[in-house]
Write a structure and sequence with these properties.
Elements: E1 11-17, E2 24-29, E3 33-36, H1 42-51, E4 59-63, H2 69-72, H3 75-82, E5 86-89, H4 90-97, E6 110-113, E7 119-121, E8 124-130, E9 139-145, E10 148-153, H5 164-168, E11 172-176, H6 181-186, H7 191-198, H8 206-216, E12 223-227, H9 236-249, E13 259-262, E14 272-273
The chain binds zinc ion (ZN) (2 copies).
């Protein structure tokens, strides 16, 4: 186990997996980390943590966005086997408790949060906010640490006025860019699935994400990670180019001061230090 890889007041972020194949994000420092969603297996999480110098004992808490399996797959194991506290809203905890794919009960590791009510985990202050989606509940997370503000919002049915302030004040933004509209339209998905995705309770497109960022996120943002890309209806190149075009059209410059990253499906991302 490796501790103190670098000064503990330096913060780190990386993604262990993104997309319907499973989602898992790490925010931490040189000593410990917090996972947001655990939608991949424990063995894979451990292996990928180790690639960036962390291990399971470094994980202090888990936050859950919503109860779809690609976000909660190994939550029971983390709670029971490793006694790691699991933070989620009451509705999400209830939905997890009745999910037949989650074998182990969260039990004493359950921590209930409320949207709009900030809570502190060590050096990190989190505020959950509402994100429309066809799950029992869905939270985005606004995260404050040191002088940094980070926002994670995924599985977004549609971008709402309620979400906008959390997205606009972030320096570091992880935001869904699920599908290319033309690829979805011409793709092999059945009609009902296409309807579900575009219903306002499914996912948002590269265009919607690009337009929103270009309109609202000009002032503070330094890093944008596009996440939860569809395997059938998107590609890292298409997502990147579409969003980049919208940003450039509004006069934003992609350079070392504003970096645009794409989180590839089921892949460990590079580690970012702040
Ligand atoms: Zn998902
Ligand atoms: Zn979902």
């Amino acid at each position: 186990m490796q501790y103190n890889l670098f000064s503990s007041n330096q913060y780190t972020f990386f993604c262990l997996s993104s997309g319907s194949c499973g989602n898992c994000y790490f925010i931490g420092n040189g000593d410990y980390g917090i996972l947001i969603d655990v939608g991949i297996g424990v063995r894979t999480i451990r292996k990928r943590l180790k690639e960036h110098g962390y291990d399971l004992p470094n994980i202090r808490s888990i936050l859950i966005t919503h109860d779809h399996l690609d976000h909660i797959k190994s939550v029971g194991t983390f709670a029971r086997r490793y006694s790691i506290p699991v933070y989620a809203t009451k509705k999400v905890h209830h939905a997890i408790s009745v999910n037949r794919f989650v074998k182990e009960d969260i039990g004493a590791s359950r921590r209930i949060i409320e949207k709009g009510q900030p809570f502190q985990i060590e050096d990190f202050r989190f505020t959950a906010f509402d994100v429309p989606h066809d799950s029992h509940d869905n939270s985005g997370y606004f995260i404050e640490f040191g002088t940094h503000k980070m926002t994670l919002a995924t599985d977004i049915g549609k971008l709402t006025d309620e979400m906008t302030p959390y997205l606009t004040k972030a320096h570091h933004l992880i935001i869904e860019s699920n599908y290319d509209e033309e690829m979805l339209r011409n793709g092999r998905y059945p009609y009902h699935l296409k309807q579900r995705i575009t219903s306002g309770l499914g996912h948002i497109s590269n265009r919607q994400t690009g337009e929103f960022l270009a309109e609202n996120c000009k002032n503070h943002v330094r890093n944008i990670w596009l996440c939860h890309l569809s395997s059938d209806n998107n590609s890292p190149e298409v997502a990147y180019e579409t969003v980049k075009k919208h940003l450039i059209d509004k006069g934003m410059v992609i350079d070392e001061k504003l970096q645009l990253h794409v989180l590839e499906r089921n892949k460990l991302s590079p580690l970012m230090k702040f």
